[in-house]
């Protein structure tokens, strides 16, 4: 890590005063000092729905900036699985959905249990683009796989989908916050913000292309789905918003209060610098332990640990990591540094 890199990220790193030995951003991000301050301030004052609404709209704008689309293309939610269910509900009867093997269940289960003859087919992530055929209506995949940390070949997948006219749905929950992400490339992009964006749980976003949004039915429409939620609170005749906010669900107010400063901080950060920092630490860790470098750089490092012995050694040394699908898993984020890498390497070399 060079001095320029440290300086470029110093303001963001300063938001995490107690992060030593934490390698679990892929499970849940550390709370920022500004998030704690915002929540405590809110709890110390009388509830104010206007203040909550401002936090929601500011959060929407920050996320839009993070994924390079206009904020009117962003719908808010609380869980990505609920937002995926919206997409599944709008598929034609008998449609074929292609997903990677071992994909995170929140992206798969809504399609599997959608009924109406919808078929879900799987392929290895490395072969996902080649597995897209003229019968594929929609391909859904994570930009970064949760279990193994592999980064999808987005160029190949999007190109193959375009050839046959298949919709593309990308879950960027394990990507936004450490790598540049452009939502314009997909028909839909989903993201829960409690991992790499270090927000309270209960804040998710759905970015939709205008063309795809026109095909979707707002089956979860409620009082917050109007252009002005406060004028669509009663009755069944209220008009839905003309933007993607017609797919909004009622927000978890306090979660957005805490999310807004975190989203702002990441939106203002240099994501290219953050990507270089996180993947640089991950590459250094892999070199030290002889773990193969992936074809596409990732901030998540995993290796086979079927009995959990390596994870147990890290835990015993007060290093916080995780294990998924028979693999030990470490995530390197903005709050990690070379000293963290050295600590983890020393424990695993004993």
Structure description:
- By secondary structure, the protein is of the alpha/beta class.
- The protein has two domains: 3-31 and 270-349, Aspartate Aminotransferase, domain 1, CATH 3.90.1150; 43-267, Type I PLP-dependent aspartate aminotransferase-like (Major domain) (Aspartate Aminotransferase, domain 2, 3-Layer(aba) Sandwich), CATH 3.40.640.
- It is 38% helix and 14% strand.
- The protein has twelve helices and ten strands.
- The strands form two sheets. It has a seven-stranded mixed β-sheet with strand order 1-7-6-5-4-2-3, sandwiched between helices. It has a three-stranded antiparallel β-sheet with strand order 8-10-9.
- Helix 3 runs parallel beside helix 9, helix 4 (80-89) packs parallel to helix 5 (105-112) and helix 10 packs parallel to helix 12 (338-349).
- The chain starts with a helix and ends with a helix.
- 45% of the residues are buried.
- Residues 1-6 have low confidence and may be disordered.
Could you give a quick summary of the protein structure above?
This protein has 350 residues and is of the alpha/beta class. The chain is 38% helix and 14% strand.
SSE arrangement:
Layout: H1 3-13, H2 33-43, H3 49-66, E1 74-77, H4 80-89, E2 96-100, H5 105-112, E3 119-123, H6 128-131, E4 136-142, H7 154-164, E5 167-171, E6 188-192, E7 204-208, H8 210-213, H9 253-268, H10 271-289, E8 300-304, H11 309-316, E9 322-324, E10 327-331, H12 338-349
Helix pairs in contact: 2-9, 3-9, 4-5, 10-12
Key words describing this protein structure:
350 residues; alpha/beta; Aspartate Aminotransferase, domain 1; Aspartate Aminotransferase, domain 2; 3-stranded antiparallel β-sheet; globular
């Amino acid at each position: 890590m060079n001095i320029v890199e440290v300086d470029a990220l110093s303001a963001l790193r300063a938001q995490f005063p107690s992060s030593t030995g934490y390698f679990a951003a892929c499970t849940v991000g550390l709370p920022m000092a500004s998030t704690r301050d915002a929540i405590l301030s809110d709890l110390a004052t009388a509830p104010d729905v206007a203040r909550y609404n401002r936090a929601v709209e500011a959060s929407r704008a920050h996320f839009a900036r993070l994924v390079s689309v206009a904020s009117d293309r962003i719908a808010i939610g609380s869980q990505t699985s609920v937002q995926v269910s919206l997409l599944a509900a709008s598929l034609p009867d008998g449609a074929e959905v292609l997903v990677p093997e071992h994909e995170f269940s929140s992206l798969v289960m809504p399609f599997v249990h959608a009924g109406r003859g919808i078929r879900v087919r799987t392929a290895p992530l490395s072969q996902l683009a080649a597995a897209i055929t003229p019968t594929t209506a929609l391909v859904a995949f994570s930009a970064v796989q949760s279990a193994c940390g592999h980064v999808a070949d987005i160029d190949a997948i999007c190109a193959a989908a375009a050839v046959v006219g298949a919709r593309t749905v990308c879950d960027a929950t394990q990507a936004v916050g450490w790598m540049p992400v452009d939502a314009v490339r997909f028909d839909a992009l989903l993201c829960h913000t409690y991992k790499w964006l270090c927000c309270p749980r209960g804040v998710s976003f759905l970015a939709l292309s205008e063309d795809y949004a026109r095909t979707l039915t707002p089956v979860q429409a409620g009082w917050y789905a109007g252009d002005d939620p406060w004028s669509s609170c009663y009755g069944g005749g209220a008009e839905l918003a003309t933007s993607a906010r017609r797919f909004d669900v009622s927000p978890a107010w306090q979660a957005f209060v805490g999310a807004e400063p975190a989203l702002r901080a990441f939106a203002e950060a240099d994501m290219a610098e953050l990507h270089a920092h996180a993947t640089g630490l991950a590459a250094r860790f892999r070199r030290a332990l002889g773990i193969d470098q992936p074809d596409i750089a990732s901030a998540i490092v995993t290796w086979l640990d079927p009995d959990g012995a390596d994870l147990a050694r890290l835990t015993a040394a007060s290093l916080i990591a995780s294990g998924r699908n028979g693999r030990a898993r470490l995530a390197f984020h903005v709050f990690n540094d070379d000293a963290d890498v050295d600590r983890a390497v020393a424990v695993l070399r004993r």
